Amino acid sequence: MLLILLSGFFPFFSFPYAETAQPESKSDFMNLFVHQSESPFVPQAISEFTESAKSSPIIPSAPAEIQAILDQITTSSYKSVVSLISSRFGSRVWNTPGNDLAVEYVSNRFESFGLDVTHHYFGPGGPNVIGTLPGGSLSNNQCIIVGAHLDTYPAASPGADDNGSGIAAILEIARAMSQYIYNYTIMFVAFNAEEQFFVGSMALADDLELNNVSLAVVYNFDMLLWDSPSSTAQIKTNIIHNGGDSGWFASHAADIGKNWVNAPVQAHQNALMVMSDHGPFWDHHIPAVWFFEFDGLNNPYIHSIADSITQSEYSAELGALATKTAAAAVADFATIVSTNTGFPDIEFITPTQGSFVKPSSQVPIVLTINDALDDVEYLELSIEGGPWLNATDGLNATHCEYILDATGMYGSYTIHAQAYDAEGWITHSSTSIIFDKGIQIQIHTPEPNDVLVEGEQNTIWINVTDPDGRYIPSVQIRINATSWEFATEHIRNHEYYYTWTPTSGGSITIEAQVIDGNGNHNTSLVSVTVTNYPPIITSVWINPLTPLNTDPVQIYTEITQDSRGSGIDQVLVFYSIDYSNWRPRLMELIDSDISVGLYMVTLDPAFAGAQVRFYIQVRDNFDNIAIDNNNGTYYVYYVGANLSTALIIGAIISIFVIVGATYYFFRYRRRVTLTPT
Question: What does the pLDDT read at residue 6?
Fold first, then answer.
């Protein structure tokens, strides 16, 4: 709130406060009111719709739909928004980075509620943020503004009460009310530069008048938290007006607050209280009311570092009660029509929200029509706020189809639709889509059904084509549905590649995916076979074939290796004598050509009569193992006796026998004496 008694603001008048609004998007924000009549912005009398709404008495309790709105606004939800606004962005002084961040935050919140969001620029700083909830009556061209200022003063102030409390109010009201359609178009406005003598609200009031936008009433919120020690339990919040029609709106809100919300509010007339954003609308003779804390001009904490949500004299409950009062008052006056019998309903079937559509001269747009009276007479479409296109030719009782020529369109677009029935009700729907030719991806190396070698490095090459040529894609690879890995873009040919060494054999699926900057997604799959190509033992023999006990035995083996193999690392012979433990011996390469190697090992002589069993094991450089054990029976040879050696041994044994016998005879025979008889 701008306090008149505070000094130091006059230098801010150095630029024109009513600059022409500069559109931010493809269409000026005034296109939101394309069906407004040519009636002047400054109404000398309230329209017949306003008079009808004003004549409705306040019933003792809120209708079910309005009570549902009130139930969504709580002290906790309200306080959380005030806390965020006053702590996240730093200074919200106009034309500072913190103010820009707050503008972005409010814009995003409005969008999340399904409102049509526009930015109204008026000077070198941040814009007014407008979230529009279109009205539901073709016959009623009036709007309601629900607003609060976003900026703070000075830079050191957190701005919780002035005016985080007001921004929280409009965000909470917008969140709760946006589920319904009303007899009036409602504009939720976060005014900017209020602390600079209401520059934002002045510019908006001027531009709305210039564009013949008719306003029924303005609800303004500025400072709702301070629980003044001079207030009473019955009066904590004033609803300030300047008499006339403003007085009726203030009394209407106060009555609703007391009866439906049990809020400590009162209507208070003071035409001199122009120090907030309702003032410029009073200047344009527009009914406007200001929700303002009791005795707020004496609040000692505003425009200071003490304006924090943690201030003990601030009450989030008072702010929430004022917010609920205003929400009920706005909903009651605006009149919910979307639950009325016969009110039409439309919804996009094609294209779906957030989908990607390829530009074409034949893009079908299909909506469902749900109307109890089946009397929808007219349906039209607008692409990104452009001119309305008559789609009635494709309208029937349940659907409407329109063929859009989207040739050359690219990027994100919002499609608006609105339908009118015979009673004059109007309903709205919208969907946001992205026109994009998509993106293609193809794995071209290896090719499908290629055979790769286990342990051999391969390069996977991927070709990516973006017909729009707008975005650098992200390309990823995975093998047999494992985790995704990023591929690398080749610096010269701009293909993508990924190096990979198979570690196991069998059928392998290689999958590549690409995602471009628009979120388009595409994949490519290739199935290949991986073989390990182990070495093959082609022949085994021994020398001599019938070894004697004096013969060392040479074991030979030929190893054949596929040209795509991985190289021989080790050849072993395992042998056992008479079923003893297996003993390994390393075989040596003694001859080789391109594919065949001859290996040999010499075993020591074994004793005559021994049985020797053996088998061959080969291991390559990637631990592939081949074994030849003669089909499980093993290779066997028997050791014979050498004849000459046997004779010598026999002779030696004979000599030992003769000598031994002679020695025995002569020694023991002489000791025998015959006894005479």
Answer: 38
pTM over 0.85: no
Residue closest to 451 by CA, chosen among 526, 523, 378, 391: 526
* Contact of 254 with 265, CB cutoff 8 Å: yes
Name residues whose C-beta falls within 8 Å of residue 398's C-beta, 6 or more positions apart in sequence: 368, 369, 370
Instruction: Please give the share of the chain, as a percent, with pLDDT higher than 70.
Output: 87
Concatenating the DSSP letter of every residue in 600-618 gives EEEEPP--TT-EEEEEEEE
Q: Are the beta carbons of 637 and 606 closer than 8 angstroms?
A: no
Q: Which residue has the tokens 């039409």?
A: 344
Pairing outcome for strands 185-191 and 214-221: unpaired
Identify the CATH number of the domain in which residue 121 sits: 3.40.630.10
Domain boundary among 435, 455, 470: 435
The number of folded domains in the chain is 4
User: What is the extent of the structural domain holding 464?
Assistant: 440-530
Residues 164 and 312 in one domain: yes
Together in a domain, 204 and 298: yes
CB atoms inside a 10 Å sphere around CB 248: 19
Helix (H) or strand (E) holding 255: helix 244-256
Three-state secondary-structure class, residue 376: strand
Name, in order, each residue with C-beta under 8 angstroms of 264's C-beta and a sequence gap of 6 or more. Answer: 231, 232, 233, 234, 235, 236, 237, 318, 321
